[in-house]
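Worked example

This section walks through a single chain of length 345. The input is the sequence exactly as stored; nothing has been trimmed or padded.
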Amino acid sequence: MTIEMDARKRKILQVVVQSYILTGKPVGSRTIADSYDLGISTATIRNELALLEKHGLLWQPHTSAGRVPTDVAYRYYVDMLMGKPIPTPRDAEAVEMLFAARSREIEGLLREASLLLSNLTHTTAMVFAPFTHGDTVHNVDLVKRSELQLMIIMVTGKGEVGRRLVTLSRSVGADTVERVTRYLNRTLAGKGANSIDKAKLLGGARYGAAGRMLLESAIDAICEYLGTSEERVYIGGTANIMRELDSAGLEGVQALLEVMERQYIILDLLKDLIREKRLTVRIGDENPISELQKCTFVGTSYPVAPGIKGSLGVFGPICMDYGRTIGTVEYMARTLGNMLSGNEE
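Given that input, the structure is written out below as tokens.
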């Protein structure tokens, strides 16, 4: 933002933006004079407000009302006036408590992260997580579903839980299932897809035909799962943005809902954050998708593993509390990244 403004105009604009974020009501010269000791008269404030309006930073709903910030004003505020964004101590504590419980699987944790981020910022939050073959085996369990079907349940080193249903050509006894399960856990713990030697594992096993068939099917399922790159988006708090966009009317809300349902659009936005390699704030018309131009998008990336990144972000009203929202998004990304990449501070 390159608008030239003196210190007084900057201060008045800052007051208008912060007051409107807090109250949602147009801000007049009397409100500014009564609430903030700027050392100038209401007449001077009115003149400055008129000049800020002329620059396209403010507008009046009607002639007797106070001023409302434009999208340009919010951009100037974020770039030049906001100061260092930080989460509140309560928000930071809530994020830390979420990641303190290490027993939960990653999928559930990321879903909870999207819900918590949504609740803290009063927005719709999204967490993008790429799971790749860089993960390893932590535990394997074989569960009989029927005479010929078994569920292969894998817990990875990152806490992700994967399931694969396999169909066998002959029945396998419970004792054989238990023995194969123990063998897999003994030989695969800590190994990734690239370090699993199927021929060696089969050669080291002493089972009958049914047991070897089960072992081979299980190894194939585990390698297939570890070698599959999956991209998942967890969305929390859609109702938050719906409430904020009541003024957009039913048509605008419906259009936004349709965008949220088309997850590939959200996925593209979140992947852009990884390519940009920095915190991104898109306000109103800066959003490339027309249905999202009544919103502000705030997002950033986080490390998942060496060379692998995920991202997270929020959609909220243009008059959001930018300092708190940006600070919380950054803190969530940093804490999540530290946990997943093993760089906990």
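What to look for: The two ends are 35 Å apart (CA to CA).
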